[in-house]
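My current task is to audit a protein record that another person submitted. Alongside the sequence sits a line of tokens, each denoting a local backbone shape. Please read both lines and tell me whether the tokens look consistent with the sequence. Do not assume that whoever made the record got everything right. Thanks in advance; the entry in question is below.
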Amino acid sequence: MAYEVVSEIYDGLMEDVDYLKWCNFMETLFLEKTPDIHHILELGCGSGIMTRHLLEKGYEVVGTDCSEEMLLLAQEKLQKFGKNIILMEQDIRDLDFEIYEIDCILSSNDTFNYILEENELRKLFAYLNKRLKAGGSFVFDISSEYKLSQILGNNVFGESFEDMAYLWENDYEPETKLLDMKITLFEQEGNLYTRHEEKQTQRAYRSEQIITLLQESGYVNIEVYGDFDRTITDLEHCERWFFVAQKRDGKNEFNEK
């Protein structure tokens, strides 16, 4: 998860992604649950692309990421927002901060796929629930099992830039539902290229599994959508799932889907 190598090419890899559309979709989900939102905790903020859109919408954001390299990129992007942004180097598998009464917790782009044990994910969900305000929203997305196994799994991707190139090799194991990824970066230095390697692993979860973990961790009003489209009913063949849930406030009722 360190992104020491990937940080050098991350923004280039994501330049064709419509992050404003992504942000707008997630904002719609959390505002329906909790209309009065000012403070957002963003987990896995990476290089700050989503963070910037949240800040431009007027939210105050605390962004966390485990990669110092990615946070340095985020810091450079977000300087102009001053006190409205705080960045912290934190591993989501071992969060340690005393922030409570958060209006909304948000995480985008596969952050929770990097948690490989179900018990660790349950523990994280419960930890976050205690830090949300009553009635606060929790919204996140993960890559589906279909994407990890059929789109990424056992495939090789690559691209060349002006002064670097990369190979992204993937190996999916159906029994463990783990996707092992090896990213090899070739960076030009004069007439030579320096080779860097980074390995990452993601886990595929079933949507029903995530819903159960959220319920066990104290969330209510849980909903799940696929591929930025709230009308899709065949979640099995979606590449990305969006979950939105709420901390009980004594008024909301169960409406899990």
